[in-house]
Design brief:
The chain is mostly helical. The chain contains 7 helices and 4 strands; from the N terminus they run H-H-E-E-E-H-H-H-E-H-H. It has a domain of 100 residues. Helix 3 runs antiparallel to helix 4. The longest helix is centred in the first third of the chain and has 29 residues. It starts with a helix and ends in a 12-residue tail after the last helix.
């Protein structure tokens, strides 16, 4: 009988604590939120900015053929390093191999500002990757992203500020004072 009484007390205690926790959460969510003291009256109705960043995809890979975007130029073809060239083409796969994205590959792709070394950088990493470097998706594969681009701002003239790996770029884009911060990566 003593064990039964202990079990009842434990169950009653757990239920009481659970009920208090639920009440606490409910009260906090129901409480009105005061306007932030950091709100500043502006000249536009914009109150929030959301940035969607994709890793290892160039703008042209996702939005190069988006209507009205400054995307893939007409009649472009890049050298494959073997005397041939590769033109932009629609990708029919739902994936691409991991294209090179080291600092060296980025500098080779950038090619002193000519932006014509993407195929060569990819082919340097592995034969056949140059074709993927010139491939693009469209609404058929990434309709959700195209829906967002149709309804919100598409940054077709936004370029990375440095050649390097992704974490540094993510850190710089999310840290208000990134010039004074020291990144700490796990």
């Amino acid at each position: 009988m003593a064990i039964q009484a202990i079990r009842v007390r434990i169950i009653a205690f757990v239920l009481s604590v659970s009920l208090i926790a639920v009440a606490f959460v409910a009260v906090n969510f129901a409480a009105p939120r005061p306007e932030s003291s950091l709100d500043v009256a502006g000249t536009t109705p914009i109150r929030h900015v959301f940035v969607i960043m994709k890793e290892n995809h160039a703008f042209d890979n996702y939005f190069g053929t988006f209507p009205g975007a400054d995307g893939i130029p007409p009649n472009v073809a890049l050298s494959d390093g073997r005397g041939g060239s590769i033109s932009p083409h629609h990708l029919t796969t739902s994936w691409t191999p991991d294209l090179p994205h080291s600092r060296e590959a980025m500098l080779q792709s950038y090619d002193g500002g000519r932006n014509d070394g993407f195929v060569l950088a990819a082919e340097t990493a592995a034969h056949g990757l140059g074709s993927f470097a010139m491939g693009y998706y469209d609404r058929r594969q990434i309709g959700g992203y195209w829906d967002l681009a149709e309804n919100y701002t598409l940054a077709d003239r936004y370029f990375q500020s440095m050649f390097g790996w992704r974490r540094t770029g993510f850190h710089g884009s999310t840290t208000p004072q990134s010039s004074r911060s020291t990144p700490r990566y796990p």
